[in-house]
């Protein structure tokens, strides 16, 4: 596997730029810019198993989570294409178990489980012009994190000014219930894998480069993902 040299984004940028990785809070989603390195072709291939999750099973998997700090509502699974339901698939790779592989072309995130298997999640990804590829790692993790809009965003979107001192964690917070922050060479890239309650966003390119999973899927991935986990984002 080869990887082009990465352009690392300065780590002192405010985490608040993640607003535009979350669907629907504000109308404009163009704050996150910048680039990460492209990587060469990878000898990776996913193959779907035949035993997909039924709608009835999905309704249970994506049901409410009442015991959270902020009780999480059920996902309307009728608004999600069944091919994006969480499932175990065959995925041949030399990457170590635990590695996360993002496939933006097909709107999937894989967690490598070993023995030729992976857990596959449906995702939303960056829209055209904002997709990136490269190798990163989970530099830190967050649960119900506070979000603070940067000055640049407040200038463009004055409605964000009310959160200038920080938006507490909650269901409307753009960081969601769980967040994995992606780093390169010790610096935060401004990109994340985050939790989304927007069922209709899955299978679409709508962010400024971040990757969103349904909240219940994100919690499942988050609990199995320690800091320093390798993350590969494939070319779109």
TrEMBL record:
Pathway: Cell wall biogenesis; peptidoglycan biosynthesis
GO terms assigned for molecular function: glycosyltransferase activity; peptidoglycan L,D-transpeptidase activity
Entry-linked Pfam families: YkuD (PF03734)
GO cellular component: extracellular region
Any GO BP annotation: cell wall organization
Entry keyword Chloroplast: no
CDD domains in the cross-refs: YkuD_like (cd16913)
InterPro entries in UniProt: LD-transpeptidase (IPR050979), LD_TPept_cat_dom (IPR005490), TAT_signal (IPR006311), TAT_signal_bac_arc (IPR019546), Transpep_catalytic_dom (IPR038063)
Keywords from the UniProt entry: Cell shape, Cell wall biogenesis/degradation, Glycosyltransferase, Hydrolase, Peptidoglycan synthesis, Transferase
Domain (L,D-TPase catalytic): residue spans on this chain: 98-234
Entry-linked PANTHER family: L,D-TRANSPEPTIDASE, L,D-TRANSPEPTIDASE ERFK_SRFK-RELATED
Family listed: Belongs to the YkuD family.
Protein name: Tat (Twin-arginine translocation) pathway signal sequence
Source species of the chain: Microvirga guangxiensis
């Amino acid at each position: 596997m080869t990887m082009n040299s990465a352009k690392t984004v300065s780590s002192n940028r405010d985490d608040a730029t993640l607003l535009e990785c979350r669907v629907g809070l504000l109308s404009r989603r163009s704050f996150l810019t910048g680039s990460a390195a492209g990587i060469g072709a990878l000898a990776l291939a996913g193959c779907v198993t035949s035993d997909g999750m039924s709608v009835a099973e999905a309704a249970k998997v994506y049901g409410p989570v009442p015991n959270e700090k902020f009780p999480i509502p059920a996902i309307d699974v009728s608004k999600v294409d069944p091919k994006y339901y969480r499932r175990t698939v065959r995925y041949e790779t030399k990457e170590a178990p635990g590695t996360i592989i993002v496939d933006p072309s097909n709107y999937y995130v894989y967690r490598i489980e070993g023995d030729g298997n992976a857990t596959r999640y449906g995702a939303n990804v960056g829209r055209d012009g904002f997709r990136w590829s490269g190798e990163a790692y989970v530099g830190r993790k967050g649960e119900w994190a506070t979000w603070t809009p940067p000055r640049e965003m407040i200038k463009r979107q004055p409605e964000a000014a009310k959160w200038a001192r920080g938006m507490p964690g909650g269901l409307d917070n753009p960081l969601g219930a769980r967040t994995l922050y992606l780093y390169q060479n010790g610096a935060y890239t401004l990109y994340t894998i985050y939790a989304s309650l927007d069922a209709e966003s899955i299978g679409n390119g709508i962010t400024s480069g971040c990757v969103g999973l349904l909240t219940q899927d994100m919690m499942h991935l988050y609990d199995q993902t320690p800091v320093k986990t390798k993350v590969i984002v494939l070319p779109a």
